[in-house]
Amino acid sequence: MNAHDRVRKEFIREAARMFGGGYHCSEIMFSLATRAWARAVDPDLARIASGFGGGIGEAGDLCGCVTGGVMAIGLLHGRTDAKAGNPPAYRLSREYHDRFQDVNGFLQCRDHTGGKFDRRSLRRCTQVVMRGLDILLDLLEENQDVVSPWRLDKIRPLAQATESSAD
């Protein structure tokens, strides 16, 4: 197994650990995607993803895997100057959206969960998070010309990352 495959496998394992630890889809997608690339991201920044779980506060709307992934794409590919035109984030966000729907067969959280957000119903979301992360990592890898390659040393549980930033 090469380093690339080890990194991807570890990210998938970390996603499962985070889900089991109580984080939800958008937090996992945003946190791992941004940590997958050689970017110094304040772990507290992941808090912006907190309201998107369960299709935006359990409203059952757009899946948190999609919103978390798009937030990560924006952080990595977004613009800082409005005069610059549409950033690569537009194209990549649309591509992520379309691939996610093609692979999973839905975009709305309620279409997957039936509008239920109990532990039993959400257990099915683990696989959606894994597939969403895989889609996002593929997309980011295909666009390495804009983003630095992912690094094994960036992988650490969110709780550890948060603790170390508080020091």
CA-based shape: globular
Number of strands: 0
| Model regions low in confidence, pLDDT < 50 over at least 5 residues | 147-167
How big is the Rg? 15 Å
Task: For the record, give the distance between the C-alpha atoms at the N and C termini, rounded to a whole number.
Answer: 35 Å
Mean pLDDT: 80
Summarize the amount of helix as a percent range.
55-70%
Structure, explained:
The structure is a single chain. This protein is mostly helical and 167 residues long. The protein has one domain (3-166). The protein is 60% helix and 0% strand. The protein has 9 helices and no strands.
Quick summary:
The chain has 167 residues and is mainly alpha-helical.
Per-chain topology:
Layout: H1 3-20, H2 25-36, H3 53-56, H4 64-77, H5 88-104, H6 109-113, H7 119-122, H8 125-142, H9 158-166
Helix pairs in contact: 1-2, 1-8, 2-4, 2-8, 4-5, 4-8, 5-8
